[in-house]
Structure formats: structure tokens, C-alpha cells
Amino acid sequence: MPEMQQRSRHLSASTAQSSSATQRDPHQTSSIPPWVHVNDGNEDPDQLLLPAEARPNTRHYKPPPSHYKPGRKWDHLRSAEPPLLSAPINDHQLRWTPFMQSGPNPQSREGRVVDAAWMEENMPYMNPDWHPEDEGEPGPGLLTARGMMYRGKWLISPERQEKTVRFFWRLLLKNPFVPLVFRITVLAFSAAALGIGASMFVNIERANRDADPNNQCATRASTYMAIIVGTVALPYLGYVTWDEYMSKPLGLRSVAAKILLLLCDLYFVVFSSSNLSLAMDALWDHRWACYDEHFAIIGGEGRAVSATCPNNPSVCYKQRALSAVLCVGLIAWCVTFSISVLRVVEKLRPD
Questions:
Q1: Domains of the chain: total
Q2: What whole-number distance in Å separates Cα of residue 104 and Cα of residue 262?
Q3: What does the pLDDT look like over 245-296, one tens digit per residue?
Q4: How confident is the model at residue 21, as a pLDDT?
Q5: Whether the model pTM is above 0.85
Q6: Neighbouring C-beta atoms of residue 195, cutoff 10 Å
Q7: CA distances from residue 122 to 2, 115, 119, 125, 210 in whole angstroms, order as listed
Q8: Which residues are within 8 A (CB) of 138 and not within 5 positions of it... i.e. 6 or more apart?
Q9: 57 lies in a domain?
């Protein structure tokens, strides 16, 4: 009996505590927040100690070597037969169709054949033929061209002029064959300048072997420059043409490599311009092959200087040809360099 009474007291106390906990106002503030850890001294002091230090597994002997190699796990299932299809692709697709349809999201064919009238009525935007899009085509009222008018009539309307200018720029910056045309032009004139310079060098050496002392001829710097620049330019033009079409695009390659090629074009422009100035100087020099003067008067004091190559028609003709070829080649170099820079800027444009 005393045990039954004690048990009933415990049950009544727990019931009272639970009822008081349930009847407690949830909006009543508490003095200590629930996330604060209260150290009232009833906790185990061992819980406040630092965790034990982790130690690696150590053995008193060397572990046996492992023969595991990546990718060799399924060698016993591989065969020496090549992975070729034993049947057409359509047959393989038909083989997997029931498996695909048995899934949770079956896909059934819902296509049907319609006539041209239905397409015209429901999808009229699919009937027009394809035409290239004019990038950045301005809307009405945004034209910047003025056109050309004569006696109140348009010879070239502003719309036509704007469209022509945009077509020209798109052709210059987007067409892949424009750099090829100018590279081939530069290559042809560089080869021509190299050939003319080498032929002129041979003719001058032949004239210097003449027994007549008055028929001696000195080689000018333009001849050496034409040979040296042409010899370096030909392999460079071949490489830069290959790089233009076969290398990685600008976003996947080093920017420094592309800038270096542009700087090489600029270097060749500088050397070609200096070579042209030397060739023109030799062409108009009274002491050289194009003038029949054994002495040239230089300066205001009338100082006479002996000629270095008096009246050699063959050398003079080739010097004129070399000057003309170098002039056209320099123009081609400048245009090629300008187009290369514009195309790189167009590719790097943020919009």
C-alpha cells in the first residue's frame, strides 16, 4: 500500500507539471533564451575536454603492393572486336522504342501532314525564303546618309546609300575571303620585288666583271632591302594566311599571339616604306644607272662627285619596275594591316 501511494503521488506531480507546461503562455518572455547554454554544474566535466587527437593508422610492416590501375576494372568484359554497328541506326532505334514508351513519360508521335493552304493560314512566317540579316539595320528616321540629288531627283537615295555602306562594311569585316585576297596580293608583289631585286643584283655583278672601267656599277641599298625583306615576307605570309583560317578563334587562343602577328604586319609596313624610299632615291640619283653623267654636281659650291653606275639601261629599267612594285606592295601591306585590325576590333566588340 505505501508503494501504491508513492506511485500515485509521482503520477499526480508529473501530471501537474505537464498541465502547467501546457497552460503556460507562449507569449510570455523568458529571462534566458533557449539557445544559450547554461552551465549549472550538473553536466559531465568530460564533455568540456578537447576531443582526442586523430592518429593515422601505422603498421610495423610495409603493406603489400596494390596492383590496381585506373580503367582496368572491367577488362574481363571487354572484347577485341571493334565497336561497329551490326545493323542500321533505324533498326537500333526501333529496338529501343518499346523501352522508351514503357517509361513514366511516354512520347507518342503526334505529327500530321498538312497542305500549303493550312501552312499559309496558320504559319505564314515560315513561307518567305531565307535572306541574310542586315546587322544593325537602322529603323525609319535613323538614317545617317544624305544621298545624292540632281535637279530635284535622287541619283542615290539615303536608304540606298545607307544600305550600300553597310553592305560594304559587312563584306569587309565578316567575309572570310577578303583577308585571303589581300594576303595573296601582298604575297604576289613581295615575290615580284624579290625576283626583280635578285635579277638586278645579278645584272650589276655581271656589269662589274666588264673590262671597261667606266662601266662599273655599285649595288644600291634598295636592292639588298628588296632581297632581304622579300625572303622574310614570303614564309611569313604563308604562315599568317594559315593562321587566319586554321588556328583557333580569338576567344580560345592567346591574345598576345594575335597582337604579335598584327605587330609583325606593322613591322613589314615600316620596312616596305623604307625600301620604297631607298628605291625612289636610287631612281632619281644622277650618279646612278638612269643618267648618263660621269660626274654629279652636289651642293651650292659646285662640288663634283663621280658617278657610281653611269647609264645602264637594263639596271635602270629594273630599278623603275622595282619602285613600282614596292609602291603597290606597300599599299597592299597598309590595307591588309588595316583590315586585320578592324576585324580584330569587330570580334572584341562587347555588343
A1: 1
A2: 59
A3: 888 887 788 878 888 888 999 999 999 999 999 999 888 877 777 776 655 5
A4: 47
A5: no
A6: 17
A7: 94, 11, 5, 9, 91
A8: 144, 162
A9: no
